[in-house]
Amino acid sequence: MVRGAAGWWCLVLWFPACVASHGLRIHDYLYFQVLSPGDIRYIFTATPAKDFGGIFHTRYEQIHLVPAEPPEACGELSNGFFIQDQIALVERGGCSFLSKTRVVQEHGGRAVIISDNAVDNDSFYVEMIQDSSQRTADIPALFLLGRDGYMIRRSLEQHGLPWAIISIPVNVTSIPTFELLQPPWTFW
Known about the structure:
alpha/beta
């Protein structure tokens, strides 16, 4: 995918022509908005897992985004009780994307957002694919840029909060371009 200033304006202003020239497809992204804490009240972009996990059948107007403990979520979660019926924020690394998704699912999570462990990653989306275990997962799994995941976690730590409140998925096609509150550190 082509990114950069030209890619951003292409997506916003000349979308039909850009699809053919850059291969952009709107269904490759899913958007969510952080409602609280207010200092990160932005619309974030994530990509769904390619070949595992479920889809969002419901729009959650307000649901908790709970950072997993331990962050890599490769085994038992010390805060699993808080993830039940909420969405978990986990970090890449330590085990497969599918394993992380299954851990969150086993703790009753409704979805998992896996942020890159490279906190300086503000533009490269990783394609999450199934591992070779033949296991499945039913909950949605999304990939989030490392910088975005870091900034969400940092804000929660600064405010002493155990979770963020988000709205997911967000239909950005109904929002005027000038009102799209995207994180300032991820502009293309």
